[in-house]
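#dry-run=false #mode=assembly
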Amino acid sequence: MMKKQAVIVGGGPAGLAAALRLREKGITDILILEREHLLGGILRQCIHDGFGLTRFGESLSGPEYAQRFINRVLEEGIECITDCTVLDITGDKVITAASRKQGLLQIQADAVLLTMGCRERTRGALATPGTRPAGIYTAGVAQNYINLQNIMVGHEVVILGSGDIGMIMARRMTLEGAHVKGVYEVQSYPSGLPRNIEQCLNDYGIPLHLSHTVVDIRGRERLTSVVVAQCDEHFRPIPGTEEEIPCDTLILSVGLIPENELSLAAGVELDARTRGAFVDENCQTSVPGIFAAGNVLHVHDLVDFVSLEAEALADSAAEYLLEGSLPECRLTVKAGNNVGHVIPQRISGIRPFTLSLRVRQPLSNVSIVVRQGEKEILRKKMRKALPAEMIQLPVRADKLNDSEDMEVFVE
Amino acid sequence: MKRTFTCIVCPNGCEIETEYEGTEVLSVTGNLCPKGRTYVTQELVDPRRTIATSVRVLNGTMPLTSVRLTSPVPKARIFDVMDEINRQTLTAPVRIGDVVIRNILGLNSDVIVTKNIDKA
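#status=ok
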């Protein structure tokens, strides 16, 4: 069986950044496994700009951002196997993978870095009634067709869900000559970033209908119309508000789910809130030596933060490989009032870490409070806090103790 | 006159309350950085945007490369710029930074390749 110090599952932004940092830390025996033919992950199809503003101080497209990391990975001679699908990971860190060139591979790793990213929620998850015609795509699939494969997906378009990719595709399809009739969002607030509402919808006169959803899908071979309706605060359609909208294409932008089938196979415990792994301040999962970062851990808004998180992961993974262990993390971090989730969920209380969280609903003039027992560790005032925007707070070690659990809440 | 702008310069997406007369900005509040004021001033006089799209590539490993503008163009000219870009065809290999159209429509912005495509 092949042996490797560190195996990285997924050659997207998280995997690439982690590989480079491991190399900087002196880990030489690294292998990246990538399912696609080329490295870069989802960035390959994200051709819009706005990537790299914090890391590089310029507004790059997704492929450019990815290529900067790919170039360095190639310069460093880090081993990558592409066209290679990981089939299984065991709790003992044995990886089974199917490679187009090398056949079936079995690799014993000292450390496994999970950087598989996320997948999209589909129509099945929404249980929208109606027929099953052609013309219904998740936003990322439409993006792949249009930006990578040169296939236009439709002409008269309705978008369900106000996620960022849905809004970016509303603009993209408009530029390519489609007529985007509107974006319908079941919640009373948008789920994407305000700047995308401005530059993707408002700029092109595309209406955003909050508290609305699709209640019926019609058409035999191809989609012919959808029926939309207004919803109450419990997301229930209000009878009498239905409106039929003729269209040939329905784009779903209704959420992203960390891709954790392999993590489950390895016995990694998942958090029902993030749908990613429970991790400690070292990005280490419940299985020692298996680490997770990026969208496989929790869905990010910005790739710049994915890269940073993956580098923090690699710092810890390098320490694990070089020292043999990491400080024990016995203290739990709890998501309290109005906090949707927190990362990490466990800490040692002796080291600094970055706390990531999302609020549950749009709030203004609030404070994010971090407390250990009765002691306030951190308080950050925010003029506005939106679920669409991940909040990251550096927590200093000198404020912490190593005996009390932590709670994060909104006040 | 009063208007609230959502700044698109960075992911902070500041909501900027603006008081203005014609194209003159009298006051701005809510912006986390000076770029917010510059953005609002530009929006009042001449709103500009960058765009990203794709261009056909012949004999490549992929049928398309992606392109973007190097600086923003007037919002009203976006579809003219798209028409111009759509007339282009490239031949592999293409490399990030290759200029597809210099100074497109005289708008002081170049169209550049943003993805490497190797020869098939």
